[in-house]
């Protein structure tokens, strides 16, 4: 995701509590489908203070583009998930999320695809690599 959100840490990497970050956007996929079809997605990243790890989920959907970037929806079952993501690059250089010195979340991790139960939204066997 290109959108960056502010994060804040206390006592180095220790969070004050559980936190959630949200990225949402859409992309025009009409080149491969029908005119005016957009692919909507929402990425949720949550921090669990008790385990000092992150979880992530991507929810997807599609809608006709009516010119209103706020008029879209996603399914209620995630298409991609990742659990137990390390809270520092030192702990796992290939699968981590951390609050950087610039006050923004940074990291990289792979997510596993799932079947959302909606026709055409089966990501089983696929992976998504996310870089913040």
Mean pLDDT: 79
**Number of helical runs?**
0
Residue ranges: pLDDT <50 for 5 or more in a row? 1-15
Query: N-to-C SSE series?
Result: EEEEEEE
Radius of gyration: 16 Å
Shape: elongated
In terms of DSSP E residues, the strand content is 35-45%
SS-derived structural category: mainly beta
Helix content: under 10%
Terminus-to-terminus distance:
6 Å
- The count of strands amounts to 7
Major beta sheet summary: 7 strands, antiparallel
List keywords for this structure.
single chain, 0% helix, elongated
Describe the protein's topology.
Blueprint: E1 19-28, E2 37-48, E3 53-64, E4 80-86, E5 96-99, E6 105-113, E7 127-131
Antiparallel strand pairs: 1-2, 2-3, 3-4, 4-6, 5-6, 6-7
Report on the architecture of this protein.
With 132 residues, the protein is mostly beta strands. The protein is built from no helices and 7 strands. The chain has strands at residues 19-28, 37-48, 53-64, 80-86, 96-99, 105-113, 127-131. Strands 1, 2, 3, 4, 5, 6 and 7 form a 7-stranded antiparallel beta sheet that branches. A hairpin with an 8-residue loop joins strand 1 (19-28) and strand 2. The termini are close together. The model is unreliable at 1-15 (pLDDT under 50).
Short description:
The protein has no helices and seven strands. The chain is an all-beta fold. The radius of gyration is 16 Å and the shape is elongated.
């Amino acid at each position: 995701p290109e959108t960056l959100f502010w994060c804040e840490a206390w006592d180095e990497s220790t969070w004050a509590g559980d936190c959630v970050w949200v990225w949402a956007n859409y992309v025009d996929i009409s080149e491969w489908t029908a005119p005016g079809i957009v692919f909507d997605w929402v990425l949720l990243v949550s921090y669990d203070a008790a385990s000092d790890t992150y979880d992530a989920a991507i929810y997807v959907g599609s809608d006709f583009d009516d010119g209103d970037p706020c008029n879209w929806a996603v399914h209620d079952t995630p298409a991609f998930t990742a659990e137990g993501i390390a809270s520092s690059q030192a702990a796992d250089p290939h699968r981590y999320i951390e609050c950087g010195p610039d006050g923004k979340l940074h990291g990289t991790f792979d997510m596993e695809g799932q079947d959302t139960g909606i026709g055409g939204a089966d990501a089983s066997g696929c992976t998504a690599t996310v870089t913040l």
